[in-house]
Amino acid sequence: MANPQSPLDRYLSRLIKNDPPRAKSLCVSLLGDALTLHGGAIWLGDLIELLAPLGINERLLRTSVFRLVAQNWLQSERHGRRSLYLISEHGARHTAHASQRIYEGAPRDWNGEWTLVALPRTGNGLAERAELRRELVWEGFGMIAPGLFAHPHTEARAAHEILEKLGIPDRALVLSARDLAGAGGLPIASLASQCWNLDDVAEQYRQFIKNFGPLEKLLEDAPAPAEAFIARVLLLHSWRRIVLHDPQLPTPMLPDNWPGHAARELCGRIYWRVFDASEAHLDALAGKDNDRYTPLTAEGESRFGGRPPAA
């Protein structure tokens, strides 16, 4: 890091020590947050140099990159003795899908409609049902009854994409529904605490605030580009791991004082505080001798509600 004795450097080092990031997961975080804004291509040597200060050694990083290629997240090109890695179409699609949950979050308003996925009693084996359940839960669906999953925001398209991905597009019903609880029935929203593990998600948000809240004061003085980059990667890596497990239910369904709201506001403030300096560091390393590295896209300016006005 630029200044090993700075309070910011010491705090960042403590965050890395207390929760060492995994190389493959950290690569995905970096790809989605930073590299997609610049064309999605990077030399392997530059990727190694970028992530070394976060405790990722070259051997682990090479192994992680090879796995991401095998899983079709990345594609590789050989240029003499050098390797250029590019985000694949598959990786870009998954990154774009995750970006909405990471940078925008759930809409505060809700029209009361639900997307339901119903599994018929016949036509699906146990393995297929288990895999479908895992995919739906990851997408934020809750199981409100055996074989019946619901989500208040997710469009039907997302459910159909999961069924296509698993090769069972014709083995489940995808429905749009609205509560008729006014006629005396049980509203789906009343089952929130039973169908979604909100307590665990809330605790993760509280821990996020505890870990990253002190960074605001440490960042009052402009950070060096290398420190800003490390802060940004750690921030988004931790944030991504939480929000992609958050069903992102509408506000009326959440407990009072839901910590996710305060955590998102904190994340956005820190993100923009380090953004420009972190971009300078990224440009200096990933942008050198890389014709595929492009200027910052407009998407980058819209994250977390957009760049705040200058003070």
Automatic annotation (TrEMBL):
<dbReference type="InterPro" id="IPR012906">
    <property type="entry name" value="PaaX-like_N"/>
</dbReference>
<dbReference type="Pfam" id="PF20803">
    <property type="entry name" value="PaaX_M"/>
</dbReference>
<feature type="domain" description="Transcriptional repressor PaaX-like central Cas2-like">
    <location>
        <begin position="108"/>
        <end position="179"/>
    </location>
</feature>
<dbReference type="Pfam" id="PF07848">
    <property type="entry name" value="PaaX"/>
</dbReference>
<protein>
    <submittedName>
        <fullName>Transcriptional repressor PaaX</fullName>
    </submittedName>
</protein>
<dbReference type="Pfam" id="PF08223">
    <property type="entry name" value="PaaX_C"/>
</dbReference>
<dbReference type="GO" id="GO:0006351">
    <property type="term" value="P:DNA-templated transcription"/>
</dbReference>
<feature type="domain" description="Transcriptional repressor PaaX-like C-terminal">
    <location>
        <begin position="196"/>
        <end position="283"/>
    </location>
</feature>
<dbReference type="InterPro" id="IPR011965">
    <property type="entry name" value="PaaX_trns_reg"/>
</dbReference>
<feature type="domain" description="Transcriptional repressor PaaX-like N-terminal">
    <location>
        <begin position="22"/>
        <end position="91"/>
    </location>
</feature>
<dbReference type="InterPro" id="IPR013225">
    <property type="entry name" value="PaaX_C"/>
</dbReference>
<dbReference type="InterPro" id="IPR036388">
    <property type="entry name" value="WH-like_DNA-bd_sf"/>
</dbReference>
<dbReference type="InterPro" id="IPR048846">
    <property type="entry name" value="PaaX-like_central"/>
</dbReference>
